[in-house]
Amino acid sequence: MSGSTLLKETGPREVFCGLTSIVWLHRRMPDAFFLVVGSRTCAHLIQSAAGVMIFAEPRFGTAILEERDLAGLADAHDELDRVVKDLLQRRPEIRTLFLVGSCPSEVIKLDLARVAERLNESLKGQVTVLNYSGSGIETTFTQGEDGALKALIPLMEPSQEEQLLLVGTLANAVEDRLFTLFKRLDIPKVASLPPRQSTELPTVGPNTRVLLTQPYLTETARCLKDRGAQIIQAPFPLGVEGSKIWMEAAAKSFKVSNSLVQTTLEPLVNRANEALKPYKNQLSGKTLFLLPESQLEIPLARFLLRECGMKLLEVGTPYLNKELMQSELDLLPENIRLVEGQHIEKQLDRVRHHSPDLVVCGMGLANPLEAEGISTKWSIELVFSPIHGIDQAADLAELFARPLHRHELLQKNNKLFAQV
Amino acid sequence: MELTLWTYEGPPHVGAMRIASSMEDIHYLLHAPQGDTYADLLFTMIERRGKRPPVTYTTFQARDLGGDTAELVKGHIREAVDRFKPKALLVGESCTAELIQDQPGSLAAGMGLNVPVVSLELPAYSKKENWGASETFYQLVRGLLKNKTKEEIHISRDWKQEDRKPKVNLLGASLLGFRCRDDVLEIKKILTEYGIEINVVAPLGATTTDIEMLPEADANICLYPEIAESTCLWLERNFNMPFTHTVPIGINATNDFLNELFGILGMPPIDPNNVYNKSKLPWYSKSVDSNYLTGKRVFIFGDGTHAMAAARIANEELGFQVVGLGTYSREMARPVRLAAKELGLEALITNNYLEVESAIEETAPELVLGTQMERHSAKRLGIPCAVISTPMHVQDVPARYSPQMGWEGANVIFDCWVHPLMMGLEEHLIGMFRHDFEFIDGHQSHLGHLGGNEKQTKSLKQNNDDEENNLSSTNLNSPIWTSDGEAELAKIPFFVRGKVRRNTEKYARQAGCRKIDSETIYDAKTHFRA
């Protein structure tokens, strides 16, 4: 960032914890199971965030700590062994088991790394047991994925092969599309982390160039760097501009000729800009307030400002990793109000004061703001929807235009609603 | 340690939030880590509330644990009281805060706040949501009333002598409770008809002033024992307030409830002839087209109150046969066991939805009355289902007036339970008429591909299969269905076909038959009837 006003705020926060990322991770790797070692609250959180009800036996669960586990009457390690054994018997198709630490397991200092090590010995390679923490005292929402991916890195085989490694969960369809495009750019090999099967991990080495698809993978990037990989600096692939620079950066690191890059991307860019136009008309000049939650706030703000003409009132982010975010911050003008951390009450005071046209916020806050006449967009929707890449830019814009469009529609067609 | 894939109830502090959010002027200071704020969405999304729950979370992080978390808690308390100016402050902790033992209740009590503080101790590692709601309501009522003596509050239960109408409190309705909003309206309406006044409704919509007025009523009505029974017992002990024990869900229970209340208030019992016409349920149940409801096998699972009420309605008012009864409310296990015993059943008391699912599969009912989870299980098994209990789903907060209690509640229940069964009948008719040339193939009813349609197709396809082929692919231990047997089975309505298949196989194994043909099916039928 050149000179945007970075403000820090502390106080009560309204954000999800890292456990929430299990909701999309378990769908990405259907042969993996995520076992939270925690409390009834953890179990309730995941099922509430996962869309209230499940349609089949889920590939995530909670080993709920009970009084006797805490009082030391039952050895928590033995108990966990028993639960894992029961689970694996029931679900023999599981190849990778993630033991996920929670607030209570961290506070009582339950050593899940040791548990994983012991289980790996007894399971003799049938199932790989890994651990990471998704606790709210250490992680925010998407940081859970950072922890899960970091846990996979030691299992990746070393290799000298030249390859592009896409890191961060993407919708499968989007990933297929990106693979096709990188192939058109003559990039010899493209792999991704996390893989679609937990056992088919990509390799890593000095000729691996890492292209981050998501902005929240601080620790994963650091560990891949430790394994010799090069991290490509780029903004994130949201919007036409960001996705184009992102792909160009990858092409450049593979020394792809400029002319091939331009002939490949130009038609895509032109088409995407055309598709973007109607939404740009709807969004241009509208004011936007982003509450901190998913870490996608800064790239989204950049897209909505630069490509859709929205006015940024405030961009909140749970935490700021300046190194990973640098290319994004470079694209933002100096007078942006950027706030790291949160004091939810003060922030909502500012929302009410500005009365923005659109607020990006968590699910708990959306209806109360709607009831005050402020249109909202759920931030969790952005981690579930296929929004990455040049071809998806218009879909991404549409997500923000829809609530505004609906608001206008109801005002226009309904005299009674217009009075409220 | 307990492996949980999905849970019927949240942690106890979510119960406390239900009480705090139901009321108008209290605030809940919850010592809890970042992430526990997810609970807000239960109220703003599922219950579709346009207001945030009145809760301040301390949202401590790992770096705070090294420092003075007690100061952090006090800072949040001060700020919350200044900002929200509540008339009473609930102070408690979630599971993680319980472990670090900051005692936020004592901290708040020592701060000299000019607002009543109610400290909540809700053991997160042994108790659950409904218990937490009950305990919070009780502690709040006790906290606001404990310093008032019986003399201080003007109490005379003799409304006749005082020349006024009798008045009662409606207790237990809360947010995230099953159809509470409409139950309160229905009961209010019924009581007003009999000249009974409503003193206070709590916790739903109540203020602290309302709570202080509770002892002024002549009796309490315990609408939901899970939430209000402990409060009713305390009010009975301390203010001599009698309370009703019958939950008015169903015609007979509503009738009993009114007679119980009238007895308490010294009013004459109601005329049974008068009751019959209050709801359409009795006539609809008697009418000739309800004949097909006779002996329908029904499986019931839910919270204690709604499960027991459903069992009574099914048994007494609709002529169903209850084949399974259970609850996830451990606190209600005793009465549910008794109710099950009276129906000749053993109650299923469990927190594990997979256990419930296998019990449903085992009993092969024709209708499931359960929670949203049983709706999913029933869908998988191709059985019609109606939802009768929490945990809440956005569908359980309908826009229309839709109570469970009282006369209108009985109407709602009749429709909710019988419509899925009629759909079941529709499936059967589709199966019957599918060979008529007028029939448009691809018709799907609400059961979609899991309905009778697919089973029919499957068994027809099997008929065409080579019998030898069948022989070779089947497990040696289980009897083999001949094409004659399969054809006979296909003639049996789909909703009992699974049960007939299982019973016949069971009989064949007992009798040592290796092959099942049409005769075996008739033999089995006779065997199990005898």
Strand order of the largest sheet of chain A: 1-12-11-10-13-14
- The span between the termini of chain B is 46 Å
Q: What is the structural class of chain B?
A: alpha/beta
CATH superfamily of the largest domain in chain B: Nitrogenase molybdenum iron protein domain
Give the helix proportion of chain B (percent range): 40-55%
State the helical fraction of chain A: 40-55%
CATH topology of the largest domain in chain B: Rossmann fold
Q: Numbering strands along the chain, what is their spatial order in the largest sheet of chain B?
A: 12-11-10-13-14
Proportion of beta-strand residues of chain B: 5-15%
Essential attributes:
heterodimer; A: 420 residues; alpha/beta; Rossmann fold; B: alpha/beta; 4 domains; 5-stranded parallel sheet; 4-stranded parallel sheet; 23 helices; 49% helix; globular
Description:
The complex is a heterodimer of chains A (420) and B (530). Chain A has 18 helices and 14 strands. With 420 residues, chain A is an alpha/beta fold. Chain A has three domains: 18-139, Rossmann fold (3-Layer(aba) Sandwich), CATH 3.40.50.1980; 163-260, Nitrogenase molybdenum iron protein domain (Rossmann fold); 273-419, Rossmann fold (3-Layer(aba) Sandwich). In chain A, strands 1-12-11-10-13-14 form a six-stranded parallel sheet, sandwiched between helices. Chain A is globular and about 65 Å long. The mean pLDDT of chain A is 93. By secondary structure, chain B is α/β, with parallel strands linked by helices. Chain B folds into four domains: 12-130, Rossmann fold (3-Layer(aba) Sandwich); 167-275, 3-Layer(aba) Sandwich (Rossmann fold); 281-426, Rossmann fold (3-Layer(aba) Sandwich); 451-529, Orthogonal Bundle (Helicase, Ruva Protein, domain 3), CATH 1.10.8.550. Chain B is 49% helix and 13% strand. Chain B has 23 helices and 16 strands. In chain B, the strands form four sheets. Chain B has a five-stranded parallel sheet with strand order 12-11-10-13-14, sandwiched between helices. In chain B, helix 15 (333-342) links the parallel strand 11 (321-327) and strand 12. In chain B, helix 7 packs parallel to helix 10 (225-239), helix 21 (483-490) crosses helix 23 (518-529) and helix 22 (494-511) packs across helix 23 (518-529). Chain B is globular. Chains A and B meet through helix 2, strand 3, helix 3, helix 4 and helix 5 of A and strand 1, helix 2, helix 4, helix 5 and helix 17 of B.
